[in-house]
């Protein structure tokens, strides 16, 4: 047995109001794991992220390697997890490292725009690296979808990539 991941979400904003309110109320996690090497290495970001957690839900900001270390640790068996990564590439590292998300899929909630990226929704911007990682996740048999909040329907990200020329 391993931890019970209830939601695997990529969100460049990591833990923010939408996740702390809408998603946490729907998923009802025991713990929120924020997996980001950059955030785990920044004490201010870690403090701000943990302060945004909903009351009564433990939150940890950890590195990708730490997540892979604890994934099979029996002390986390059955713990209901809301898993957040900052990038699609980090989510791919977790899957390639053994984190099982089949049947659950990956929600791309938000990816911030920067130079060289293309908006595929009003909240998701991708560049060649993000597009490749999304395709890699899909080719591993995982559903990759966009869903801002629980009441929104899931929208398959692959047709959006194709429409944007990726």
TrEMBL record:
Residues 1-166 form the PTS EIIB type-4 domain. The keyword Metal-binding does not apply. Pfam families: PTSIIB_sorb (PF03830). It is found in: Cytoplasm. SUPFAM superfamilies: PTS IIb component (SSF52728). Keywords: Cytoplasm, Kinase, Phosphotransferase system, Sugar transport, Transferase, Transport. GO terms for cellular component: cytoplasm. The keyword Kinase applies. One of its GO terms (biological process) is phosphoenolpyruvate-dependent sugar phosphotransferase system. GO terms for molecular function: kinase activity; protein-N(PI)-phosphohistidine-sugar phosphotransferase activity. This is PTS system sorbose subIIB component family protein. It comes from Pediococcus claussenii (strain ATCC BAA-344 / DSM 14800 / JCM 18046 / KCTC 3811 / LMG 21948 / P06).
